[in-house]
Amino acid sequence: xxxxxxxxxxxxxxxxxxxxxxxxxxxxxxxxxxxxxxxxxxxxxxxxxxxxxxxxxxxxxxxxxxxxxxxxxxxxxxxxxxxxxxxxxxxxxxxxxxxxxxxxxxxxxxxxxxxxxxxxxxxxxxxxxxxxxxxxxxxxxxxxxxxxxxxxxxxxxxxxxxxxxxxxxxxxxxxxxxxxxxxxxxxxxxxxxxxxxxxxxxxxxxxxxxxxxxxxxxxxxxxxxxxxxxxxxxxxxxxxxxxxxxxxxxxxxxxxxxxxxxxxxxxxxxxxxxxxxxxxxxxxxxxxxxxxxxxxxxxxxxxxxxxxxxxxxxxxxxxxxxxxxxxxxxxxxxxxxxxxxxxxxxxxxxxxxxxxxxxxxxxxxxxxxxxxxxxxxxxxxxxxxxxxxxxxxxxxxxxxxxxxxxxxxxxxxxxxxxxxxxxxxxxxxxxxxxxxxxxxxxxxxxxxxxxxxxxxxxxxxxxxxxxxxxxxxxxxx
Length: 477
Description:
The chain is α/β, with parallel strands linked by helices. The chain folds into three domains: 1-136, 3-Layer(aba) Sandwich (Rossmann fold); 159-325, P-loop containing nucleotide triphosphate hydrolases (Rossmann fold), CATH 3.40.50; 425-469, Arc Repressor Mutant, subunit A, CATH 1.10.10. It is built from 19 helices and 16 strands. A five-stranded parallel sheet has the order 2-1-3-4-5, sandwiched between helices. The model is unreliable at 1-15, 137-145 and 404-416 (pLDDT under 50).
């Protein structure tokens, strides 16, 4: 369970105020209470009030409205609202025949059928905030229009990733050798491909070699090629990866697994830009940009004599570090959205999104497998879920066990919960109890019997608490 010590929500990337419009007080109060307890800034309005003035004066970013009240006034209302805030997102709910309204083909309009599922509503609010964040750069020049994406493959808007993008763009045009270091699954090959795509060699081959996946006795032939008859089974001349990458880029992945004898030969290629195929006595010149990568600490391997010091310095002319996913947690929702869209499209599924509670759990997981693990998890969930929303119940047990909030336990970290002047414990406990009751009622659509079951209470006990706390809901449910 998420600790209440961390009040800041994981995916609150926007400060938009939410406006709820409905003349049904029960629905309006329920939605408002639920979203308020989730940490959003919420205001409410009756359809007959001056809504346009409210949008302008309260700087509304997202509208949640009962569409049946806008059947005749919708075109004028939508046009005026868009003029005030071009990034405005509208989440409408109602009957299915309310769905088709002017402008509903735009990507800033969402629809939910009644009765409302508040978990689905909250997921749409998060999608609305993500839409607004991405659209903020629509009026920038082409180079910075999508600052969270590099070469259509690397994704991240966190500080560490933005710094990485800047580094890649700076070094791409150079012919200097690059050493990319990072844990498994962080995207080292994606970074290498981005460097190649941004370089003047992008119209030539990008040739990857996984040094750990090729047996030692075959790696030399793979890299440098061989001539006919140079060893048993060499029935013809064969070009190696260096020759294939001529005028382009050679990516040597897992370079830390290369044996000492090959390290010597690689060093010669880096020094002289020439190599000899296996079994040949003639050298071949080559013009190749070398990018190496490893998940090992080469400096430690140099110190222990497991890696040649001279080769290390030849490779690391420009060192690049790929941050692990746990150091760029702000990118997790963005990555999930990208993977979800891709796998939905590939498999023709209709998974709508991840609930906020699910995102919070994934945001606090350590991700030992980094982005690759996250990608595999999303693919698995899309295959198994097929449609609807991903909830904590859909996650494998390892993501649910031992959930902790990874924040330093300092006075500053808990200051929002325990002020210097102290706090009334009874009031805090009462507010937390109210929050759980509201969430249980919201999750069950106001059904007190089901809500009481979620809280492990009797229905009559829950009703008494509602009366005592002055939380008014229909007692027939």
